[in-house]
Predict the 3D structure of the following.
Amino acid sequence: MAGARRRSRSPNPVLRHGFDAIRDTFGSVMIPELLHRITGMSLADGTAADITVENGIVTAVDPAGAPGDLHLPGWLLLSAATEPHAHLDKALSWSRVQQAYGDLQTAIDSWLAYAVTMTGKEVYTRSGRALEHYLAHGITTIRTHADVLPGEEPLRGVAALLRLRDEVRDLMDVQVVLLTREDSPDSVVADAVALGVDVLGGCPHLCPDPTAETRRLLDLAERFGLPLDLHTDEQLGADVLSIRELCRQVRARGLQQRVTASHCVSLGSLEPELLAEVIAEVRAAGLGIVSLPITNLYLQGRDHSWSRPRGIPALRALLDAGIDVAAGGDNLRDPFNPMGRADPFETTSLLVTAGHLDEASALAAVTAGGRTVLGLPPSGPAVGSVANFVAVRADSLADVLAGPGDARVVIHGGRLVSRTVVDRKTALSAFAARPL
Ligand SMILES: [Zn+2]
């Protein structure tokens, strides 16, 4: 059995033409060459495999043989990951915004006070830096929401993110969601659509009349023929269920475009009978659900002085019902979440510990589930899939999901787009080198 045979471990990936040639292409947005054979690594089930790629698509997965363009003995290779719900325009702003740790409303107030003077250039710069973090950790597919900003030129942040999306097009799949506010005029939405946003979004749960706002946003999605991704029920409690109106409206209108409900925090606090009813409605409407553990663990439950609930929907029940579920980090070191590593395996760790998912489901939520919810074809080490991979230095999938080290090799569309090498030496290094 191929997976059982003893293979040499290499601290660094071996690229036939050397990393210096590749390094020269980094530093600005340049397009690395296509790889054809990626060899010597293990797959999630422990088998050793070589992968052949033609024009960014996997054409063969074979037992390990001779070294190819990129040789990865001792590395475990998975599909590259997806961040289904980021806020790049806010990312890495925590230290710039004056505020204390707090709940959702605290974060919104702090953010709006800061954002009124924020420039498009700042959004572009911080977002680009955040993208680099995601890419280095193996996330090559990102859906980011982009605020309609307060102040002059409300689409200045949107324009900055669209420019970034287009500049990195060959390195990452980036989708930009227009995050409307209740008072965003239809003319601003039309302008954003003309600029090229991919998806429409909004926050009905923050409005005095969530039903009216849900309908308005569905009207806009129908008018412009775009998918819809709504911040939905980002509060605890069975009395917060605007998702039911969303399901009703999607079914009544027979919407063909994909509709996603992000957060769905209240789905974690329902009694089983009510939960089953709502899940049946979500399934009938064909909604995708996005869970964002780290941010909703941070924001929610602060008004409970004891027995604090978790801000995570009932993931197992959703998956058992056959609903498409994706998971990600949401905010990244900003007023809504001062923590975060832009790392899919930070999310898998939380899905297991706080969301009580099993290994396979946690991995799927940051890989295949994300691609499905975003309406993209599958990626990973399977024939016919897009050649998006992350390779990690680890002995097993469980070690990866727990949060592996930073050493990663990342491939997108068959191109080597990132590699991180860690040179760790400690007084106990002899233990690390000893085979288990
Ligand atoms: Zn969000």
